[in-house]
Write a structure and sequence with these properties.
single chain; alpha+beta; 2 domains; 3-stranded mixed sheet; 10 helices; 34% helix; signal
Amino acid sequence: MSRPSQPTPLCLLSLLWMFQVCSGIKWLALSQTPASMSINRTQHCKQLRGLVSAQVQLCRNNLELMQTIIQAAREVKKTCQKTSADMRWNCSSIETTPQYLPDLERGTRESAFVYALSAATISHTIARACTSGDLRYCSCGPIPGEVPQPGYRWGGCADNLHYGLLMGTKFSDAPMKMRKSRSQANKLMHLHNSEVGRQALRDALELKCKCHGVSGSCSIRTCWKGLQDLKDIAMDLKTKYLSATKVVHRPMGTRKQLVPKDIDIRPVRENELVYLQSSPDFCHRNEKQGSFGTQGRQCNKTSIGSDSCDLMCCGRGYNPYTETLVEKCHCKYHWCCYVTCKRCERTVERYICK
């Protein structure tokens, strides 16, 4: 009788995390939903990957919202990788959804960033969908209560941040709230960092105006409250990621709470990202730690930042290569109304880590 094949250590590791950690970002697997798939019947909700039962129920009750949430999942992956492209950790492991590697499930500062970004993105995408008319059950945000300055008036279509936060929170926090996790510390960390992401979104609501007047005099401005672009919010969260605070789970009063590990004389601040476990340096490939390493990554020889060849390549050195770029050049505007350009080639030198 043949013996059953044994799972690989990495598979065992993945199963261990799946059962020990209450993951709130498995819904990002929605990013893999085929574009041709329509979510217009309640039975479609069970076909979606990465959802817990509470999220499936939310799907059934809000079918119209699901295409927007699927769009948000795609935005999280794209924005995470773009925002971290100049660092050793470049969010590569988000592609393994929904079977995440340790860098996103082990209570690291990287998981803190992804949870915050995910929470901000889903609410941002829903709020913008209300404004654009993509959702029937919400519309423009409310007119502000304060009186506008002289020469200003309220108008336009404000981003519906209230509805975005309401529905985004219900969906993204559902996995952490549906039942107790074996790791209460991870659960508290993920809920805290998700709220930090939403607070960054609230802080990104700004005044936007359109000018009116004779000959562009801008004597009257019609204004509304609109959200900054997601890339700007992601950069704010990246700054918080770089200054994240390591915490421990210890008794404070009548219950256990997260408190700063080295400066536990103060509580955790509402606007700071927190993490429980230190990260590897991400220099070398190590699947047990969720590190893909930096071998073969492109670096910037003239930079002094995180994308510099010295830091990106971890002192291993780098190899140069040349690349020929074809670009538009010598463009001319013709009256009226078109532009013609020539195509020019130029050779640039690139560098990749050994």
